[in-house]
Design brief:
The complex is a heterodimer of chains A (about 260) and B (about 375). Chain A is of the alpha/beta class and about 260 residues long. In chain A, about 35% of the residues lie in helices and about 25% in strands. Chain A is built from 10 helices and 10 strands. In chain A, the strands form 2 sheets. A 6-stranded mixed β-sheet of chain A has the order 6-7-8-3-9-10, with helices on both faces. In chain A, helix 5 crosses helix 6 and helix 7 runs parallel beside helix 8. The longest helix of chain A is centred in the middle third of the chain and has 14 residues. Chain B has one domain. Chain B is built from 16 helices and 4 strands. In chain B, strand 2 and strand 3 form a beta hairpin. The longest helix of chain B is centred in the first third of the chain and has 27 residues. The chains are: A alpha/beta (about 260), B mainly alpha (about 375). At the A-B interface, helix 2, helix 3 and helix 4 of A face helix 10, helix 11 and helix 12 of B.
């Protein structure tokens, strides 16, 4: 169960893709939320996924993280692992971290305690009962809190943070989980322009040792990420490529950018 | 940040050092454990310091309720599992103890049958059912006091948590569980004495249950159990495990995506809580002298929730305070104005939910914070004037 894999290693020649979706379909009451979706994320890549409301972005995240099972299609992690066979806790321990659209941190615990809970390690009941923090772990927690810019808030309750700070805390919690792949759902939603740019810089920093998939609406944010973009529409891929290329695509303009 | 002297202390010392209210609570419990029996046994009946035996029994009963409230606060206050069936675990622990006490009666029953309890003779049973075997032994019975509630909690919790039954749905099925047990235990052919339950106990480990000394010992054991259970619960909620429980309470799916098996964490705390409730029941039965299916009543389980809510959920000591305070009020009002008690209990619950969401403990904390704020604002002003 505790297959916590550390982040390095994805540059090895043998791994073709970090995440591979092929012909994935999922319908709810006859409505095809995901329709024959295929996606290939390379190890070490930073990928932005955009699309209008109802394009299937959240359902795609749910399928990858084990919350929803697809009706058909392939979902593979690190070439060989069939994600449809696992549940949320397994997939988290395999090395996929997920940040929700709405910031979800544990409001009644401090920033430090939030990061401590997320810190990679065994997740068993007994270990948690007898857990004693080592100094390396404490250092790692401090380091991550510093990375996401919350050092001054270390001992504050997470519930007292601003919206943007909660988003960063959650990103910090994702990083200490030690995932290889990070799925980040609308990190810039509800942020000020300044916070949005800082978040983009933070994600680029994180991308140095993690594969990152970002779902976002905010075009300035996507521009700042400066990465390959996939446009989803009606549960499938409409276009893929650099932002300049994608935004020149007439179909994309019609369904999304032109509005 | 880390004080060296704190680390040099024992594990329990370290826990209590960070928990002022807990220190007071344990101090009061230990003092009561010694003083109440002394005042009952050594002081002459007319003395101001004499505590009559009925008060000792009453206080012992409150402490059993306090232990039960502690058990509920552990699952509800810290993990958000609103169990409306904790009375069932309490009653099962009580029945296990009651069965032992029944076996101790021996041939002193009304029918003088050394092999069978009176109610079985009355039902024309000829032999002891298999599930009564072993209850002659005190240690076996004590083992069952914890094991039976734990086993029920394990099976129930395993099914419910694995299927991700949460919130109000979980509350409803726990209520159904205790109601089902109520109906089952009412049946004579279950072999637990039907609606009369188990009673007419004579002695425990050879000591008469009617004697003041035995009653004082039972009281002291109840006080000690509450103190030990408090320390156990505090240790659990102060560990990393406890923080995972809070995480589950506040953001269950976030916790799942962090890689924690939420169902395992819930199951463990639910089983521990059920055992504590069972122990509370086992201490309760010899003190009140009876256990009957009424203890499985859905209302009983709801009352436990009210104690915890009024005392202050998620604080542990609040549960103890709430259980003692509400039950003291119950004793007083059911004596003085028996017909209004239930209305009062309902009103208390409504008022505490609307105006005191954090219970008595929350009010006390609020008052202290306000005083601290006033002190903080007044000091600089004085400094400016001088």
């Amino acid at each position: 169960m505790s297959a916590v894999v550390k982040s390095p290693g994805f540059h090895s020649a043998e791994m073709q893709s970090m995440l591979y979706l092929n012909g994935v379909t999922k319908s709810f009451d006859g409505f095809k939320a995901i329709n024959n979706l295929s996606l290939d994320i390379y190890p070490g890549e930073l990928r932005a996924i955009i699309g209008p409301n109802g394009a299937g972005k959240s359902t795609m995240m749910d399928i990858i993280t084990g919350k929803t099972r697809p009706d058909s299609g392939e979902v593979r992690f690190r070439d060989s692992i069939d994600l449809t066979q696992y549940d949320e806790a397994d997939i988290a321990n395999l090395g996929i971290g997920r940040k929700f659209q709405k910031p979800t941190v544990i409001e009644t615990l401090t920033v430090w305690e939030n990061v401590e809970l997320a810190l990679a390690g065994t997740r068993s009941v007994l270990r948690a009962l007898l857990h004693k923090l080592s100094s390396e772990q404490a250092d790692k927690i401090d380091e991550v809190i510093k990375l996401v810019g919350l050092k001054a808030k270390t001992n504050d309750l997470a519930g007292s943070l601003s919206h943007g700070q909660k988003q960063w805390l959650e990103i910090g919690m994702l990083i200490v989980q030690g995932p290889e792949l990070l799925l980040v759902d609308e990190p810039a939603a509800g942020m000020t322009d300044h916070e949005t740019m800082e978040t983009a810089a933070l994600l680029k920093e994180i991308n140095k040792d993690h594969t990152v998939v970002v779902v976002e609406h905010d075009m300035d944010f996507i521009k700042a990420l400066d990465s390959k973009v996939t446009v989803l529409h009606e549960g499938g891929v409409l276009a893929e490529g650099r932002l300049e290329v994608v935004s020149a695509n007439p179909r994309v303009i019609e369904v999304y950018l032109g509005r | 940040m880390i004080n060296k002297t704190i680390f040099e202390r024992s594990a329990i010392g370290r826990l209590l050092l960070a928990d002022k209210a807990g220190r007071y609570l344990i101090g009061v419990l230990l003092a009561a454990m010694i003083l109440v029996p002394l005042c009952n046994l050594l002081m002459p009946a007319g003395s101001f310091f004499h505590i009559p035996t009925y008060v000792v029994v009453l206080l012992g009963k409150y402490l059993c309720y306090a232990l039960l409230a502690l058990a509920l606060d552990l699952v509800w206050g810290y993990c958000g599992i609103l169990s409306l069936g904790h009375g069932a675990f309490f009653a099962l622990g009580g029945y296990a103890m009651g069965m032992h006490l029944m076996r101790q009666i021996g041939e002193r029953g009304v029918y003088g049958n050394a092999e069978l309890p009176d109610f079985m003779v009355f039902l024309n049973w000829t032999e002891l059912p298999w599930y009564w075997y072993g209850f002659d032994s005190f240690f076996f019975a004590m083992f069952m006091v914890a094991l039976v509630p734990a086993a029920l909690a394990f099976v129930f919790g395993w099914l419910a948590f694995r299927s991700r039954v949460t919130g109000v749905y979980l509350s409803i099925i726990t209520q159904a569980m205790t109601y089902a047990l109520l109906l089952a235990f009412f049946r004579n052919d279950m072999g637990f004495g039907g609606n009369n339950g188990l009673t007419d106990f004579k002695d425990i480990l050879g000591f008469s249950l009617q004697s003041d000394v035995t009653r004082c010992v039972l009281f002291a054991l109840s006080a000690l159990s509450v103190a030990l259970a408090y320390i156990l619960c505090r240790a659990i909620v102060s560990s990393k495990y406890g923080r995972v429980l809070v995480a589950i309470r506040d953001a269950e799916s976030r916790t799942r995506f962090m890689g924690y098996r939420v169902e395992h964490f819930k199951l463990f705390v639910f089983v521990v809580s059920a055992m504590l409730a069972g122990i509370a029941g086992a201490l309760y039965v010899p003190q009140v002298g009876i256990i009957n299916p009424g203890e499985f009543g859905p209302i009983n389980s709801i009352e436990i929730v009210i104690w915890v809510a009024i005392g202050g959920r998620g604080t542990l000591f609040g549960a103890v305070i709430g259980a003692v305070a509400v039950n003291y009020a119950k004793t007083y009002f059911t004596g003085a104005f028996p017909e209004v008690w239930l209305f009062m209990l309902g009103a208390l619950f409504v008022i505490s939910t609307l105006y005191l969401p954090k219970g008595i403990v929350g009010v006390v904390n609020q008052l202290r914070e306000r005083r601290a704020e006033r002190n903080a604002t007044s000091t600089p002003e004085q400094g400016a004037q001088s």
